[in-house]
TrEMBL record:
PRMT5 TIM barrel domain boundaries: 40-173
Pfam families: PRMT5_TIM (PF17285)
Protein name as catalogued: PRMT5 TIM barrel domain-containing protein
Organism: Mantoniella antarctica
Record flagged with keyword tRNA-binding: no
Biological process terms in GO annotation: regulation of DNA-templated transcription
Taxonomic path: Eukaryota, Viridiplantae, Chlorophyta, Mamiellophyceae, Mamiellales
GO cellular component, one term: nucleus
InterPro entries documented for this protein: Arg_MeTrfase, PRMT5_TIM
GO molecular function, one term: protein-arginine N-methyltransferase activity
Domain of life, source organism: Eukaryota
Alphabetically ordered keywords of this record: S-adenosyl-L-methionine
Length: 184
């Protein structure tokens, strides 16, 4: 998937936008970034949590595992200029700060705070946040706490074109009618 989002004003092409490549798993950050730039993209959107070290959702957690295991890759993999201009972080997809489950809500809040602090430490230009749910007061509270602290990091919010509920209803209606589901 590609993401076209303005990072800054381009001096080489006037008002053109920067274009980035979003990936879900990147085991070798240097290689992924190199291939992204060679492919003509300006930045890489990658998870803040390393796939090997990321927190598990509470239901998937091993109770015997250490609680303070590392969750991110080393900040020494790239130089500070690369972190701040060529990487956009994205938060873990399982985070649900407004979950009805108290343990899930607490873990989600902690993970969101940890990931936003890591992004600030790296001086990332931006962090891509998931779209908030309809009732997202807690999510909004946690994000709001970081707005003042993230002086050099923008928070981008993913905004779906179609509500997930509408998309699911259309797929059910198409299945009931025997038609293929609508393309996303």
């Amino acid at each position: 998937a590609t993401a076209t989002m303005p990072l800054a004003r381009r001096t080489d092409l006037g008002d053109s936008n920067y274009s980035g490549l979003e990936i879900d798993v990147c085991h070798d950050l240097q290689r992924c970034l190199k291939e992204t730039l060679e492919g003509g993209f300006d930045f890489l959107v990658t998870p803040l949590a390393h796939p090997r070290h990321r927190r598990c959702a509470p239901s998937a957690r091993d109770p015997t595992a250490p609680q303070l295991a590392p969750f991110a890759r080393s900040d020494l993999l790239l130089n500070s200029s690369q972190w701040s201009s060529q990487i956009v972080g994205k938060t873990s997809p399982w985070i649900d700060a407004d979950s009805v489950s108290a343990p899930m809500r607490r873990d989600s809040e902690a993970a969101l705070r940890q990931e936003l602090m890591w992004a600030a430490h790296l001086s990332l230009h931006a962090v891509l946040l998931p779209a908030p749910a309809l009732h997202a007061a807690n999510y909004a509270r946690v994000v709001n706490q970081f707005l003042g602290a993230l002086t050099h990091t923008a928070l981008w919010v993913r905004v779906p074109v179609v509500a997930l509920e509408v998309e699911a209803a259309e797929a059910r209606a198409a299945a009931a009618a025997g038609a293929p589901p609508p393309a996303s």
